[in-house]
Amino acid sequence: MQGYNYFLDNSFLGYYYGVVRNGAMASKTTAKIAASRLTVHTGFWLRLVSNHVSYAFGHKLESSGVTVAEWVVLREMYGGDATTSPGIVAELTGLTRGAVSKLISRLLEKGLVTRRESSSDRRYQDIELTQAAIAIVPKLARLADLNDEEFFGVLSKSDRKLLTKLLKKTAALHNLTRMPVD
What 3 state SS string does the chain have? Predict the structure, then answer.
């Protein structure tokens, strides 16, 4: 199809390919309305790469029975204090307390954390990694490293450093410390 380009539209529960002509969806009603192409936006490329990196990592984690979100909680708890609280995990991960509570419940069901009332204040909970979690985190970290290498190993070391530096700078300038929630 000459004159047509295909773009990845991942706006709804999966990947769908749409036909684009001259950078805008072909339509009689929008033919004269100026609109920038998706592909001219840095955010488009960030989301495209991010979605693929996350999807591939999630696929690698499947055999372990741990999701990407659960991995984030496990990794942030690993190597820290023996016990911690859901509030501290929320601060470490940038997730909401509600999201962390749900993730901790799932990890509890999987035998990867324990949860008990705090000895100092019954309103609070202490959570702790189990020995199974302590054993699996380094293995999952190697999968994360492999996933990063698969996606970003095609870049030179200086390009990788620059990309990371620019993303960190953008996050800092916009005070992005928490994950967005709907």
Answer: CCCEEEEEECCCCCCEEEEEECCECCCCCCCCCCCCCHHHCHHHHHHHHHHHHHHHHHHHHHHHCCCHHHHHHHHHHCCCCCCECHHHHHHHHCCCHHHHHHHHHHHHHCCCEEEEECCCCCCCEEEEECHHHHHHHHHHHHHHHHHHHHHHCCCCHHHHHHHHHHHHHHHHHCCCCCCCCC
Domain at 41-173, CATH from 1.10.10.10, 2.60.40.10, 3.40.50.2300, 3.30.1360.40: 1.10.10.10
pLDDT in tens, 112-153: 999 988 777 777 888 999 999 999 999 999 999 999 999 999
Does the global pTM surpass 0.90? no
